Amino acid sequence: MDSGINKGVIATTFATFIAFMGIGVVDPLLPLIGTAMGATPYQVEWLFTSYIAVMAVCMLLTAWLTTNLGSKWTLMLGLGIVVVFSTLSGLSPDITVFAFFRGGWGLGNALFTSTALSIIVGMSTRGINRSITLYEAALGLGIASGPLLGGFLGTFGWRYPFFGTATLMAIGLIFTAVTIRMPRKEQAKRNGKDIFKALRNKVVHTNALIGLGYSYGFFTILAYTPLTLVGLTTIQLGITYFLWGILVAFSSVVVVNWLRKYVDIIRLLVVNLAFMVLIFLALAYLSASFRLITIVASGFFCGIANALFTTLAMEVSPFIRPVSSAAYNFLRWSGAAIAPIVSGFIGEIYGLTVPFYISGAIMAVATIFLAKEAGLLRHALQTNFETSTA
Questions:
Q1: How far apart are CA 33 and CA 166, in angstroms?
Q2: 316: Cβ–Cβ under 8 A, 6 or more apart, which residues?
Q3: Do 57 and 186 form a contact (C-beta atoms < 8 A)?
Q4: What is the pLDDT of residues 2-26, one digit of tens each?
Q5: Number of neighbours of residue 193 by Cβ within 10 angstroms
Q6: How many Å apart are CA 260 and CA 136, to the nearest integer?
Q7: Which of 223, 210, 189 shows the shortest CA–CA distance to 295?
Q8: Does the pLDDT at position 124 exceed 80?
Q9: pTM of the predicted model, to two decimals?
């Protein structure tokens, strides 16, 4: 019996795990890097913003590269770029150069993330829902393990986690090169215009704009909250965001699949985002010790939202997967890119907790917009389902 999981799927899943580990590895290091380089919270947050901003812009290139180079070679190019710029990040002499290298890292991650899910879906015989579950498991565990790796290796110096990430990603690159065998079939040539064409589709840009609002909040939690947990050591911060990431992984893989048996996907997402609004209000009002508990607990709701948004991005769009993924991620990562730098600036000028009010307000707008457009998204889900089963 075909298990539906071959070596290529395993290789891509492992590389996904390492790629998202690279996002979170910086988390517990932010205070340490700020001290070592004499950087303010605003300057330190550029390590996230440059990375994610480049990711967002480079999504415009991924559809063209995927259809001209093929999914496997686009994936491998992305992995190779991450290896180079992760290493260079560990060699950075100052915060400006560091932010530049993180931008290069973002380019590699854009090429990787735009193709990884479509490869997993295309090579697996278990169907799109189980493929998304596998992808979300790798994403969640990667985000969970990144802070732990950063916190542990950071006890020896802030540079070591970046060298460790580069080594793991190089292993993923070799594993991918050896195991992935993509079918030899020509795809129609695509370019950045196809992504803008997709974004003109009301269903696609509606879902992507809601995802943008959610991603702003998600990266406020991931990238900004470490600066508000004053007094924690690097390893303590690492453990905090490891626990947060474990909840992200658990809820995105286990809880969301259980809930979807009983609750419509759109209604579930509306309720989940409403809880995220309450999370931000709690982060703004509670003391530092309770804020830590709230940060960890927020991983439960982040995991559910991650899985649901990934499902919607793949299932509401009438376009091919590489274009659907790139269009959604272009807008989604745009929201993620501005969150760290805006939160860092506002927190530095107006107070550490003020950014949580901003994120809560943006999340509330996203929730209302989703509730308003629920009928549109449900209709797209049903239409695409009927088309795929016809």
A1: 18
A2: 203, 204, 207, 377, 380, 381, 384
A3: no
A4: 444 577 778 888 888 888 887 778 8
A5: 11
A6: 15
A7: 223
A8: no
A9: 0.84
Q: Please name the amino acid found at residue 149.
A: L
Q: Which residue has the tokens 């994120």?
A: 359
Question: Nearest 10 degrees: CA dihedral of 364, 365, 371, 372?
Answer: 160
Q: Are 105 and 51 in contact (CB under 8 A)?
A: yes
What is the rounded distance in angstroms from the CA atom of residue 314 to the CA atom of residue 4?
20
Q: Which two tokens stand for residue 164?
A: 């460790």
Is residue 175 a contact partner of residue 9, using CB atoms and an 8 Å limit?
no
CA-based nearest residue to 287, from 231, 239, 229, 242: 229
Rounded CA separation 16/135 (Å):
7
Tell me the per-residue pLDDT of 52-62, one tens digit each, with 9 for 90 and over: 899 888 877 77
Q: How far apart are CA 81 and CA 353, in angstroms?
A: 36
Could you give the 3-state DSSP secondary structure of residue 25? coil
pLDDT of residue 26: 83
Q: Which amino acid is at 30?
A: L
The DSSP 8-state label assigned to residue 6 in this structure reads: -
Q: E strands of the chain, at which residues?
A: none
CA distance 100 to 43: 12
Q: In a 3-state reduction of DSSP, which class is residue 106?
A: helix
Contact 253, 308 (CB under 8 A): no
Instruction: Write the CA distances from 220 to 23, 49, 92, 357, 360, integer angstroms.
Output: 13, 11, 25, 11, 10
Q: Which carries the bigger pLDDT value, residue 277 or residue 25?
A: 277
With pLDDT > 70 as the criterion, what percentage of the chain qualifies? 92
Mean pLDDT of the chain: 85
280-317 residue pLDDT tens:
999 999 887 889 999 999 999 999 999 899 888 878 88
Burial class of residue 268, CB neighbours in 10 A (0-12, 13-18, 19+): middle
62-115: pLDDT as tens digits: 767 777 777 788 888 989 999 999 999 999 999 999 999 999 998 998 888 777
**3-state DSSP call for residue 234?**
helix
Per the CB < 8 A criterion, the answer to whether 211 and 363 are in contact is: no
Alpha-carbon span 158 to 363, nearest angstrom = 33
> Which string of b and e fits 82-118 if b means at least 16 CB within 10 Å?
bbbbbbbbbebeebeebbbbbbbbbbbbbbbbbbbbb
Q: Does the pLDDT at position 334 exceed 70? A: yes
